Amino acid sequence: MSESTTTEVIRTEGLVKRFGAVTALNGVSLYLRQGEVLGLVGDNGAGKSTLIKILTGFLQPDEGRIFIDGREVRLRSVSYARSLGIETVYQDLALVNELSVYHNMFLKRETLLNPLPLLNNWRMRRLAREYLESMGVNIPSVDTEVAQLSGGQRQSIAIARAVYSRARILLLDEPLAAMGAKEGSLIMNLIRTLKNEGQVSIIMIAHNYAQVLEICDRVNLLQHGRIALDKPAGQTSVEELTELVMREYRVGANQRQQPLAGR
Amino acid sequence: MAENVLSAPPVQTEPEPTPERPNPWLRVARLFLRQREASIVVVAIALIIYFQFSNQAFLSTQNIRTLSQFVAATAIISAGEVMLLICGEIDLSVGQVYALAPFIMYFANQAGLPLLVGLILGLIVCALVGLFNGLITVMLKVPSFITTLGTLFLINGLTLTISQGFPVLTPSEGLINEILGHASYSEIIWAIAITIVMQVVLSWTRWGLHTVATGGNLLGASEVGVNVARIKIGNFMLCSVLGGFAGILEAFRITSIDPLAGGTDIMFMAVAGAVIGGTALTGGLGTIVGAFLGTLVLSILRDGFTLLGVSAFTFDIILGAAILVAMILNVRLRLWREAGRE
Questions:
Q1: Alpha-carbon distance A243 to A251, whole Å?
Q2: Residue B111 class from Cβ within 10 Å (0-12 exposed, 13-18 middle, 19+ buried)?
Q3: First CA to last CA across chain A, in angstroms?
Q4: Does A178 contact chain B (CB < 8 Å)?
Q5: Minimal Cβ distance to B4: which of A78, A148, A180
Q6: C-alpha–C-alpha distance, residues B37 and A186, integer Å
Q7: Cα–Cα distance, A196 to A204 (Å, whole number)
Q8: Looking at beta carbons, which residues of chain B come within 8 Å of A103?
Q9: Residues B149-174 as b or e (16 or more Cβ within 10 Å = b)
C-alpha cells in the first residue's frame, strides 16, 4: 500500500445500497484522513443518511468494500463498528432527559465505588466537569438534568460523550440542524477544538454550506448516490455547491414545465 | 424552538434580582420544596393534623399500629411497581402473585420441606411469573398492560385451583412467624427496609440508572448499549417477587392464607401510591421513597375516615375524590417547584 493510504482511517470503494426499486447509493467511493473533518453535503434523498448508517454498522451495503485503517472490514453491527472506534451522534442524540449531564456522559461506562456495587457519583461528576471544561462546553452544571438544556448544549454533550468514549472516527448526522446562530457556534467551536487536538477524524452531514466551508477541511457532494464533487474546502465555494445542486433541480423543473410552456 | 427559551435562564444566574433579605426559614422551606417528595410530605402532614383534630384516637399507639399494617404490604408492592413504571411498564398481576406465593409456601411446607425453603420456593415461583410477564412483553412485544391483565386471571385461577377456594392457616413455627410479619411492627419494618434498599438500588446502582434510561429514552438507551430487554424483564421479576413477599408477610400477620387476598384492590392501591408519590406513568421519573409516602397518604385517608365513622359506601366516594385532590395538589406543587428552579 502506498504511503497516503496509511493515514486514511476510512476508505470505501463502490458502495451500493438498494431499497427495493430505489438505489440509495450507487457506487460511493470516499476516504477520510486521520484528523480530518469531512463535510458531506447533498440534497434530501441524495443518500447521506444511508451512507452514515452503513459506516456506523446499522445497514449493510449490497456491493462495495470498506477499509478501516487500511484493513478491509465488514461492519456487521453497530457494536462491532463501535469496537473499531466508530461512533455516531444521531439527531435524536440518545440522551436521557431525566438524567443529569454527568450520568448521561457516563451511561453504560459508569465508575463504581469498588468493591461496592454503588455508583461513584463524585468521581463521574468531577470527570465530566473537567472534560466538558477542557472541551469548552459551557453548561450551568453537570448536575443539570439534560431536559433543562438548550439544543446546542445537548448536541455538545452528545458529541463530547462520543469523543470521551475514545471514539477515533466520529460521524455527525446534521449536528447543526434546527439551531440558531449562537447555538450553532457552540457546536462549531467544539468541532474546531476536536480538529485542533487531531485525535478524532470526523464526517459531518450538513445543509448549511457556509458553515461546512468554514469548519471542514474537505467537502464531498453526494448526488444520486454518487460523490459528484470532492474538493478541499478552500477550493470550492457556496456558489459552486449551490450551483451544482440547483442545476440539477433546474433540469428537473424545466422538464416538468415543458407541457405548461406549450399551452 | 422552546429550547431557546429554556437555555437562557441557567446561563445568567447572577443578574436575577434577589429579594432584599433572604429569610433563612424561607430558604430552608424552598430547599425542601424543591425535593421531589416534598409535596406529598406536606399533604401527609396536613392529613395527620386534620384527622388528629377530628379524632384524638388517630395518633394513639393502637391506631398507629393499624395504620402501619395498612401501609406495609402496599408499600412493598409499590416499590416494585415504581421500578416497572420508571422503565415504562406496569404489572397488573402483582395482586394475584400476592395471593399465590403464600400457598406455594404452605404446600411446600405440607410436603415436608422447612418453612423457609417453602418461602424461597414461593418467591422463585413469583420470579418465574415475572419472567413470564417480562418475556411476553419484551420478546413478543405485547403491551405490559395486556400481558399482565392476562396473567392476572391466569394466576388467580391457578391459586383458586390449588387451594380449592378455601383459606388455610399459616404454619406456626414461632420465631419465624414473628419475624415474617406476625410481630406487631415487623411488617412495617420490612416495608421501610425494602424501601430504603430499593431507593439505593434506584439512585446509586447501575441497575437503577439503566432503569431510568430505559424509561426515559428507550431507543437512546439501547443505542448507547444498555440492554433494555434485560432491565425490563429484571424489573418484572423484581416486582413479582416483592408482591409475593408482601403476600407472605401479610399471611403471617393475619395467620391465614386466603386465595382471595390482595387482588386488584392492593395492586391499584400500590400503583396509586406510586403515582401520588411522583412516579410518572409515562416512564423515566419516580422514587421509591415517594411511593412509600404516597401509600402512606392513601392509608391515612382510609384509616382516618374509618375512625370518623364514615360509612363504607361514602368512604369510596371520599377516597376517590381525595386521590384526585392529592394528585392535583401534587401536580400543582411540582409545576410551582419547577418554575422556582429557573
A1: 12
A2: exposed
A3: 61
A4: yes
A5: A180
A6: 36
A7: 16
A8: 209
A9: eebbeebbebbbeebeeeebebbeee
Residue B122 grid coordinates: 414461593
Structural domains in chain A, sorted by start = 3-261 (3.40.50.300)
Per-residue tens of pLDDT for chain B, all 342 residues: 343 433 334 444 444 444 455 677 887 777 776 676 787 888 899 999 999 999 899 999 999 999 999 999 999 999 999 999 999 999 999 999 999 999 999 999 999 999 999 999 999 999 999 999 999 999 999 999 999 999 999 999 999 999 999 999 998 888 888 899 889 899 999 999 999 999 999 999 999 999 999 999 998 898 788 899 999 999 999 999 999 999 999 999 999 999 999 999 999 999 989 988 888 877 888 999 999 999 999 899 889 988 888 887 887 887 788 778 767 766 676 676 566 544
Euclidean distance between CA atoms A223 and A234, whole angstroms: 21
Q: Which of A108, A137, A164, A166 to mutate to test the interface with B (most CBs of B within 10 A)?
A: A108
Alpha-carbon span A26 to A223, nearest angstrom: 10
Q: H/E element holding A71?
A: strand A71-73
| The three cell numbers locating residue B1 | 424552538
**The total number of residues written for chain B in this structure:** 342
Residue entry with cell 385451583: B161
**How far is B12 from B316, CA to CA, in rounded Å?**
50
Report residue B144 CA to chain centroid gap: 17
Cell numbers given for A128: 465530566
Cα distance between residue A246 and residue A75, in whole Å: 34
Classify residue A73 by burial, with Cβ atoms within 10 Å: 0-12, 13-18, 19+: middle
* 8 A C-beta contact, residue B200 and residue B288: no
Distance from C-alpha of A258 to C-alpha of A171, rounded to nearest angstrom: 42
A115 touches chain B (CB under 8 A): no
Predicted ipTM beyond 0.90 = no
Question: Is B1 part of the contact surface with chain A (CB cutoff 8 Å)?
Answer: yes
What the block records as the C-alpha cell of B266 is 392492593
Tell me which residues of chain B, numbers 10 to 69, contact chain A at a CB-CB cutoff of 8 Å.
Answer: 10-11, 13
Residue numbers in B near A140 (CB within 8 A): 10-11, 13
